[in-house]
Write a structure and sequence with these properties.
The chain is an alpha+beta fold. It has two helices and three strands. It has helices at residues 11-55, 61-73, and strands at 81-91, 94-104, 115-123. Strand 1 (81-91) and strand 2 form a beta hairpin. Helix 1 (11-55) packs antiparallel against helix 2.
Length: 127
């Protein structure tokens, strides 16, 4: 009688071939989320700082845009920015400065939204 012996040789290679692509896909998805969140955070901070710079008593709209651009240019978000706009806004009877930034999301694949719009606001100081 011949005994049937189970041969496990080579099963580790098959396990690796099945599991490795899944692990790589999950790792790339996590890196993509981290990159998008970093760019979003930089843009929000730049918009808020630009609004504060434009809202100073002895300042103008161009200084707000320069400040926002300076912050963005120091990060990896610089290539994603399409437009920076600074404009006064009246909200509840109070004059405020608003900085709007439009950017493209740095997506690797074609999934998800590709545009991002952030705003920063600050109360206008009086001279």
């Amino acid at each position: 009688m011949t005994s049937l012996r189970r041969d496990d040789r080579g099963s580790a290679i098959v396990d690796f071939v099945v599991v490795a692509p899944l692990l790589i896909a999950v790792a790339l998805a996590v890196l993509q989320i981290i990159l998008v969140m970093h760019v979003r955070t930089v843009l929000i901070s730049a918009a808020a700082e630009g609004a504060r710079a434009a809202a100073l008593a002895d300042s103008n709209l161009a200084s707000g845009e320069r400040r926002a651009r300076a912050i963005i240019d120091e990060s990896i978000a610089a290539s994603a920015v399409e437009r920076i706009e600074v404009h006064p806004v009246m909200s509840g009877g109070v004059m405020m400065m608003a900085v709007s930034i439009d950017a493209r999301l740095p997506l690797i694949g074609l999934l998800g939204p590709t545009a991002m719009h952030v705003q920063g606001h600050s109360l206008q100081e009086r001279a």
